Amino acid sequence: MSNPLFSDRHVDFLLREVLDLPGLLALPAFVEHSEETCAMYMDACRKVARQVLLPSYGPVDAAAPGLEAGGQVRLHRDMHEAHRTLVELGVLTAARPEAVGGTGLPMLATAASHAYLMAGNLAAYALEGLTTGAARLIESFGDDDLRARFMRKMYDGEWTGTMALTEPQAGSSLSDVATKATPAADGTFRISGTKVFISGGAHDVAENIIHLTLARIEGAPAGIKGVSLFAVPAKREVNGKLVDNDVLCSSVFHKVGWRGLPSVQLSFGDRGECHGWLVGAPHQGIKYMFQMMNEARLMVGLNAVASASVAFHAAIAYAQDRPQGRPLTAKDPTTPQIPIIEHADVRRMLLRQKAIVEGGLALLLECARLTDLSEHHPDPAERKAAFLLLDLLTPIAKTFPAEYGFEANTLAIQIHGGYGYTSEYPVEAWWRDQKLNTIHEGTSGIQGLDLLGRKMVAEGGAGLRDLAGRVTATLAKASQAGLPATLTEPLSAALQAWLQASATLGAKGATGDVDGMLRHSADYMSLASVTVVGWMWLRQAVAATNATDRDLAQGVDAAARYWMATEATKAPALAARIASGEDSYAALDPAWL
Amino acid sequence: MSNPLFSDRHVDFLLREVLDLPGLLALPAFVEHSEETCAMYMDACRKVARQVLLPSYGPVDAAAPGLEAGGQVRLHRDMHEAHRTLVELGVLTAARPEAVGGTGLPMLATAASHAYLMAGNLAAYALEGLTTGAARLIESFGDDDLRARFMRKMYDGEWTGTMALTEPQAGSSLSDVATKATPAADGTFRISGTKVFISGGAHDVAENIIHLTLARIEGAPAGIKGVSLFAVPAKREVNGKLVDNDVLCSSVFHKVGWRGLPSVQLSFGDRGECHGWLVGAPHQGIKYMFQMMNEARLMVGLNAVASASVAFHAAIAYAQDRPQGRPLTAKDPTTPQIPIIEHADVRRMLLRQKAIVEGGLALLLECARLTDLSEHHPDPAERKAAFLLLDLLTPIAKTFPAEYGFEANTLAIQIHGGYGYTSEYPVEAWWRDQKLNTIHEGTSGIQGLDLLGRKMVAEGGAGLRDLAGRVTATLAKASQAGLPATLTEPLSAALQAWLQASATLGAKGATGDVDGMLRHSADYMSLASVTVVGWMWLRQAVAATNATDRDLAQGVDAAARYWMATEATKAPALAARIASGEDSYAALDPAWL
Lengths: 593, 593
Known about the structure:
The structure is a homodimer.
Chain A: H1 8-18, H2 21-25, H3 35-62, H4 77-89, H5 107-120, H6 122-141, H7 144-155, E1 160-164, E2 180-183, E3 189-199, E4 209-217, E5 228-233, E6 235-238, E7 241-244, E8 247-252, E9 263-268, E10 275-278, H8 285-321, H9 344-376, H10 380-420, H11 427-435, H12 444-455, H13 462-480, H14 485-510, H15 514-518, H16 521-544, H17 550-566, H18 571-580
Parallel strand pairs in A: 1-4, 2-4
Antiparallel strand pairs in A: 2-3, 3-9, 3-10, 4-5, 5-10, 6-7, 8-9
Helix pairs in contact in A: 1-9, 3-4, 3-5, 4-6, 5-6, 5-8, 5-9, 6-7, 6-8, 8-9, 8-10, 8-11, 9-10, 9-16, 9-17, 10-11, 10-12, 10-13, 10-16, 12-16, 13-14, 13-16, 14-16, 14-17, 14-18, 16-17, 16-18
């Protein structure tokens, strides 16, 4: 199976022509780097993704690990090899500063490079992504002792990490976390409780696993204000040796996808001997964890783009290879059949996938660029603006690729016909993987509430105003570049519809009708998504007017036209429904079902 | 696991209040039947579906059969029991006339009853559905010898049947069927060729399988005009004994869903000893098969409704049982959590599922009613009108539940959160089952071409004109009944949009721009779907104004309002896109991807 995973020319176009990687590299923070160093890392990632990860995907998916005696979980040998290769490649610290042993690449270049790794083998990459995210929490909020005790070995790839938030009675509701932390005489805590759906929570790829765990210190306030963050290792060091830390894997979930990476239930402290180290200050766990969650949400968005992209490229290849049927006007059944890519409806499905995959990638890389600017721009005002815009875009960048990406994966199966419904082709496996992305790291429903209830109104709507200004500037550039009204008018109308809906709903919230405001959060998310991705496509269309690669430019133009005609045009009806206060579901009595 | 599969009160409401089963029973053809006999059959089906089929669903899904030595395929023992039970229940001939040993129930009552069986265990029912469809072909087009030789034992449940159309090089393109039929001295034919994706093509539930097979008689014209229909038994009778008929199961496809019913590859005549019996006249195979395909398409539509319905009811139960989070305005984290059905976005997902499931069921049962009228109405003009309308609705009734039903199944997973992504709950299995329905019996793309290129223009558009008249009559009734404009105006606008798009595209086709016409077939299908299902909901809303069950009536009203506000309002933008001649995908050059 040969698969490019992403279109190299499109990724390069995004980095250089659309998202201005050269401009980013001119910032003082990236003085050690250049387009050349970024390209070297990109090349190395592409090679590993295509030559090591992708070939391992099928075998790993086909042999999901189970629970063995003593809570043991053994991963497929290809997961072991992938771990060694990815650590050697330097994925754990590619975007971390040199001060903690990192390479210090811009997040923009890192994310674009890692997207290939995710597309090659999602489960294999996720183990590293979780580890670097967990280590990052300690880097940000832990003291020198914790950094030395845990972070260093995690960044080195000797140990891995998890985020241990969810409990059986507290999935989306973190204020109900019940895991307990009891202070011990040695300054650490004794942890007890049960966590579920912990990805990478048990395996044999590394000798130790550090669980970044939410728990409640005895006597802490109820709700999210009483939740603290702990580093809880599977094994703790005693006299220079690793001993069991009373963290038991009590079951492995049988998941639909992501089958290479076990998701497990963990019992902490069944014997009362589970030591945990407080990270940062007590009762600040949710605030700290939000850093990881925001990064994790962007990682999920990029995962979703990657799973959709690898399937998109498989669908292109299949559509070009598979002969079936003849042109609609052909009358002679003795003429040869044509490849299905010649059929308009197959092209529609391919262009829709392209619009979703490459529009989604542009959005996630824009978020990576904003991450860089929010951390490294010398001007504090620019940093703050980038942060607010990133904060606004994060729930969209998590949800759009998960929801639309799932549709793209479904279309890839459809193009494969009956064969796509069998395990003879990998499209069904990527489709199974994709489904998780609307659920984990905050469901689409939670993201909608976050976007409308928090991000839209943050700082008096500053992020949305900034975004509107940027979209308007792109519209002006598009007109200057001579792009047709079919590309600009639908986006302009969508932006107005979004702003109008924001005003309508914001006014409801301001007058105390919070339920009336938030019951339209799903419509609001759709409205934001078609607009933001429309902006991504118009930015690409503007940049493509200068592109020397005419195939690339025509592809961008076709996808942009498709998006504007098919998706951006949905905005007015969405805004009208929001304005009408439609309440059929909110008013629903369960007895009516 | 307790699950009603469908809402009994809603099914009864559809039959009696919306689709006028009593009026149908007044036709002379149904003189032997009454509401009581229909209700008895319904009760028996509900009981089997809930007590026998549903408990077997999980075990059967978990143990998909494989290929054993000698081409043997052994089904799960629960599939054996289900077969015996369904045969005893009389499903094979419930709607067949007494002349062939049937019960002669109206298709309307039969389809509503069998929907429960499909929802209980899709694979188990499908074996019977395929058998009755195959036997029906022999009943319609075979002579007395073939009826005695094959049909009788199929209707008795001793033997089962399949439809063997697809070949590796001819999936959607039946004109490329290459299986050969060579005349033999005894009046039969020797069949040779390979068929793929033959559902129920090999199993050990019955002693023989009759494959209704498309093949080409030596010297036949190329294309679909040279394809004939044959009955090809797995075993043929020689001197009163069954002997091997040289039909080898050479592989079993590893499918994503429908795992209880094997889909296999069959090699006919490897040893030159495969006897086939011509059904009807030579070269008429496609015409004959279309009868079965149209029935099969309606069966797929009902399968899709059933898979969505059982998941919908599981989601209702889960949403009522699962506590998570608090009201949006609650500030006190020590108050108990509320069931997730209290959250507006969960209600949205449930009401959307209801609108899809029950709107889809209404459409499929309307098609069943039209089947009855087209076959049994005493007035030939009424029969013809019913046939034309049924013909128009069939591709919609196949595609809408498959496409939207898949979305409903996805929402059922979403409501289950992380648990829905595991095999601990059955929602993921129904979701896997559902995916096939957009692919088999003609992909959604093929259905779109059929609707727009054949059905819309058939008899000068008579079916569409008739439908428009019926929708308009329902709109008038709704106004008379005092229903609000929020229920009627979106449907009225959708109907106008559909008619306008039909005129636009019909004119393109009439002037020879067939490609320009048909490249909008997917949009056209969407437009037809939101309108037709809107009609179903308005008919239900009108009927519900008289309903004594107020919970039922309010549920119908909520779903109708939801559909009109959310789906019917999509019609104008779809029609505008069609009118614009948008061609981004049709103009796509593969090099641009």
